[in-house]
Every structure is written in C-alpha cells, then in structure tokens.
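Field log, afternoon session.

UNIT: design team B
ACTIVITY: writing a sequence onto a fixed backbone
BACKBONE:
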C-alpha cells in the first residue's frame, strides 16, 4: 500500500533507532504474534472455544437465526378482501389479459367471458382488471344478463372487486331501470368495502337517478358528496340541472348554478353547465340572456373551458329552441377544432344531437349523411345511436331507409337489440307488410333476444287483424313457455281461433291456460271462455276440463304423499338395520324378544292343531 511522505519518514526513524525498534509496530502494519508454545496447547484452546460457542452462541448468529415477524392475520374471515394492485398484472397474467383483450376487440364477448371463467381456477388466475375489461365490453353492448352472471361468478370465486367493478354494476342496474337496486349496492359499498367511492361513482349514480326520474334522491346524494368532503363537481351539477329542465323547473336550474358558483369562488370556468343554463333562460322566455350566455362561453377570448360534453349541451339547447342555424355553425367549429388526442371537441353524442336536429327540421337525408360521417372523427356508433336514427326514419314512413341503416349495423360491429326489431316490426304492420313484421320477430327470437309481452301482443294483434290466425297461434305456442302470458293474451288468441272456427285449438289454449300458475281462473274469465265455446255448443267442455285437471292434481298430490311416506319408511328401516338392538334399551329388547317368541310359537301351534285333526279323523 502507498505511504504518504511524513509517514514514510517516521517509519525510517523508527528503523534506525534500536530502542524504538523494540516498541509496538505502527497500527498500519499487521503483526501476528504466536500465542501458543505447542500445537497441543492451540488444539486445547480450539476445543474450549467450541464448547463456549455451543453454550453461548455469538450475537451475529442470534441475529441470523431470529425468525421474521409474522404479519398479523385478519381475525375476521368474512371481512372483504382488498383488491389486487396494478403490479399484479404482470408475467403470465398480463399475457392472459392481452389474450382476452384480443377477443374483446374481435367482438367475441361470449368467448372472452368463457375464457375468463375457465381461467379463474387455473394456474394463471385473471386479475380484477381483466374481469373489468370483459364486464365493460358487455356493458357497452347492453348484455346485462351476461354481465351480472359473470360478476356473480367472480364474486363466488373470491376475486376481490375494486371501485371500477362497483361502478360497472351501478351502471348496469341504472340502465336496466332498477335505481333502487343500484342504491342498495351503493349502501353495501359504503358499509362493507375497504375503499371509498370515487367521483366517477357519484357521477354514474346521479346521472342514473336523474334518467330514472329520481331527482329527489339525486339531490340527497349531492348533499352526501358535500358531507364526505369531495370537491364540487360541475358535471354532477350539470346532471342535476338537466333533471330540473326535464321537470320544467327553471328556478331549480338557476339555484343549482348559483350554488356551484358560490362553492367555486364566484366563477364557473367549466362549460359543462352552460347548455343547461341556456335552457333555463329559454324556458323563462329570456332568449337574449340565453344568447349572451352562449357568446360568453364560446366567444372569442372566452375563459370558459369547453369540452365535448359542454358543446353537446349547448348544441342541444340551440336545436331545441329554434336556433338550428347557430347550431350548424357551432358544429362546424367543433369539427374543425377536433384534433385527438390533444383536444376532443366532438364525440358520439355530438352526432346524435345533430341527427335529432336534422330530423326535427325534416332533413332526413342530411341526417343519414351526418350519421355516416362520424367514423371520420374516430367516433363509432352504438346500438342506441342506430336506434335513434331508425326511430326517426320509421316515424316518418321511411321504412326502406330504416332497413338500410339497420343493415349497416353488422359492418360497424354493432348488434340490433329488441328495440331495433320492434321498431321495424311495428313499421311493417303500418306499411301493411305483416310477413316482414313476423320475420323481424322471428329474428329476434332466433338471435336469443328477449322480446317482452307487449311486443308479442302487438305481433299477435297485427297478425290477427290481417287474418293470419295460424301464424299467430304458432307464435303463441313458441312464446308461451318463454313469457308470462296475461289474461289479455289468452283472450286475444282464443277469440281469434273461435272466430276462425278452430274450436279444437281453442280447447288446447284453454288446457294451456289451466296449467298456467300465473293465471287465476275467475268467473269473468270462465264466462268469456264459455261464450267463445258456445259458438260450437261446447261450453260444457270447460267444466269437464276443470274437473279433469283437479282430479289429476289430486292424484299427483296423493302420489307425492305416498312416495314421501315410502321414502320415510325406507329411511327408518335402513337406520334400524344399521343400529344394534342393545342401543334401544331393555324395553325395546323385550319387544323384540316377544316378537321372536310369537314367531317361534306359531310353528308349534300349527303342529299341535295338525295332530288333533289327525286324531279326529281316526
């Protein structure tokens, strides 16, 4: 090792002085002295050192052998689990996530959901983020039953949901017109979940409550947001103001705006509330103030920050209150300013508003052209958008154009729903095309959609009116097992069959009615059936059929009771054969002994009687 100059000079002095040479060497020179005179003495020292180590181990070994402190386990096994962090989405689980996303992009949601279910109990368990991707895709295509089924499955499998999962469930129930169920799940989230709701949660709930006509509950939920300490959200106030507009409560619109303005320090810079405020002015007849508000929001040098949602609200206000020309200019400006991903000024809602505006003006051709141009701005139509345009076309007698638009749904990766087919079916009946109407209903059933009873009744009524009774009866047989028929449905088909002289078919329908547990055969319904059967002199057949049904029900009930008693006796015999007699006590043993004695005495008595008979004969 290198030595500095002063140190080297000191070392030389030590070497030249014989007295200092015998002193202890400097600290930087390691000198090892021999501690033992003989090897036996050194070995003895090593043995003693080993004995000391066995008795008193060194401190370093104690630190190494000290066990790690165990994390305290949750004492409550029923407590909800925390959701997995984003870091869990790695390795094979990330590969699985990407595979399922590929299936979603291919619009193969059934396979994506099935793959997710199969992976739950495999070596590569999907994360909640993968499950949420499938749930969100099902929600976008309105596959509510599949979504709830998958959610129930992952809940039973123990996959901990996060706030996104809860938000998807809230949106599902609100879209299905079940706001009370959504609020029950929200209360469960507040009481049991190990995390708090997000601002998006309150946006979804308040918008859904307003859309379902529950403005009072939405107002109560707004107060709860304030109590929980969230920042005032202009989007939430926008939804509440929209609800006030629907209820024609312009004072409520101004009151909410002033409340938001006060909470934000005297100025509202978010343009999402501008459209609702304009509607409030228009409702009051204050058109000048409404247009001043419009110029302040979208004029040159405006400090108001406008996004796509804010622009759409303003567009809707202009279209609804006879300012369509101004709406066209604003829409052109929105399309010019739209430059994703830096700035979004146009979305799907923008095109839906303009389609409504064009159709109100009677300019249907331009409405279809604008609808088809949304792909140029990276906006993809959904089922609701198609239904909106199809409804406008069908309402104005443009069935061929509506069918053409419906045919474009498959190319956009969008599937028609029950409302799509019911619109076309009703229009076909209006255009005197019952065969096409029946074909649309059949498509609905073949694609495993679920038409409700009202749609079926419109189909049956339309077919009966044009004399297609046999076809109406075939649809009755098809839907009888899928729908809960009401009294009006039975009366309609029975009257149609009786008017056509098909009384045997009427009796078949009556037989089906008697087996229907949801229908009460009251006196009024009996009088109706007898009146229809009286046309062929078969009114007595109803009483016979009722008696026969009662007899079959009694026999089935008696048979069920007999089978239950037989099963009970067989179980008792099986238990008696398995248990030894000593377990039943002395009394039971005596009974068994008496029974055995009687069995043994019977052959002896028979023998004695036989001997006496032989003596008498002799």
């Amino acid at each position: 090792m290198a030595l500095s100059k002063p140190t080297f000079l000191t070392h030389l002095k030590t070497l030249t002085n014989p007295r200092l040479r015998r002193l202890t060497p400097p600290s930087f020179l390691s000198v090892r002295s021999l501690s033992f005179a003989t090897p036996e003495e050194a070995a003895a020292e090593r043995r003693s050192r080993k004995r000391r180590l066995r008795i008193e181990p060194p401190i370093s070994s104690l630190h190494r052998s000290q066990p790690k402190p165990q994390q305290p386990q949750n004492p409550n096994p029923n407590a909800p689990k925390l959701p997995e962090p984003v870091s869990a989405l790695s390795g094979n689980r990330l590969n699985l996530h990407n595979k399922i996303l590929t299936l979603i992009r291919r619009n193969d949601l059934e396979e994506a959901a099935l793959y997710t279910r199969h992976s739950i109990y495999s070596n590569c368990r999907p994360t909640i983020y993968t499950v949420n991707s499938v749930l969100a895709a099902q929600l976008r295509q309105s596959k509510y039953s599949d979504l709830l089924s998958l959610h129930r499955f992952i809940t039973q499998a123990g996959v901990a949901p996060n706030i996104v999962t809860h938000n998807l469930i809230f949106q599902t129930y609100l879209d299905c017109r079940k706001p009370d169920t959504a609020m029950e799940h929200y209360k469960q989230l507040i009481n049991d979940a190990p995390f708090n709701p997000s601002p998006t949660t309150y946006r979804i709930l308040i918008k859904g409550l307003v859309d379902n006509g529950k403005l009072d509950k939405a107002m109560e939920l707004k107060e709860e947001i304030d109590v929980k300490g969230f920042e005032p959200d202009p989007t939430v106030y926008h939804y509440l103001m929209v609800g006030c507009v629907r209820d024609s409560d312009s004072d409520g619109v101004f009151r909410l705006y002033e409340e938001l303005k006060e909470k934000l320090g005297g100025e509202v810079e978010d343009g999402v509330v501008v459209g609702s405020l304009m509607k409030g002015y228009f409702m009051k007849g204050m058109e000048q103030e409404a247009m001043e508000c419009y110029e302040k929001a979208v004029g040159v040098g405006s400090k108001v920050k406008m996004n796509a949602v804010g622009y759409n609200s303003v567009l809707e206000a202009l279209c609804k209150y006879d300012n369509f020309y101004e709406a066209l200019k604003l829409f052109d400006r929105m399309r010019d300013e739209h430059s994703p991903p830096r700035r979004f000024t146009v979305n799907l809602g923008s095109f839906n508003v303009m389609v409504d505006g064009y159709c109100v003006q009677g300019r249907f051709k331009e409405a279809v052209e604008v609808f088809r141009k949304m792909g140029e701005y990276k906006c993809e139509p959904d089922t609701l958008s198609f239904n909106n345009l199809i409804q406008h076309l069908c309402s104005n007698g443009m069935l061929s154009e509506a069918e053409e638009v419906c045919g474009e749904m498959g190319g956009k990766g969008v599937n028609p729903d029950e409302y799509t087919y019911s619109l076309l079916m009703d229009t076909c009946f209006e255009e005197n095309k019952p065969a096409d109407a029946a074909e649309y209903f059949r498509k609905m059933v073949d694609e495993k959609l679920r038409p409700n009873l009202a749609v079926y009744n419109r189909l049956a009524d339309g077919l009966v009116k044009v004399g297609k009774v046999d076809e109406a009866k075939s649809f009755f047989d098809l839907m009888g097992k899928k729908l809960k028929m009401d009294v009006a449905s039975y009366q309609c088909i029975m009257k149609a069959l009786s008017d056509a002289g098909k009384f045997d078919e009427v009796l078949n329908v009556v037989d089906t009615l008697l087996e229907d547990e949801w229908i009460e055969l009251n006196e009024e319904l009996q009088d109706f059936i007898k009146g229809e059967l009286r046309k062929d002199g078969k009114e007595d057949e109803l009483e016979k059929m009722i008696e026969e049904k009662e007899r079959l029900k009694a026999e089935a009930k008696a048979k069920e009771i007999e089978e239950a008693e037989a099963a009970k006796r067989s179980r008792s015999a099986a238990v008696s054969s398995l248990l030894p007699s000593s377990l039943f006590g002395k009394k039971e043993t005596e009974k068994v002994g008496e029974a055995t004695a009687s069995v043994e005495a019977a052959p002896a008595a028979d023998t004695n009687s036989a001997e006496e008979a032989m003596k008498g004969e002799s």
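LOG NOTE: Confidence is low (pLDDT under 50) at residues 20-24, 26-33, 586-618.
NEXT ACTIVITY: expression trials, pending approval
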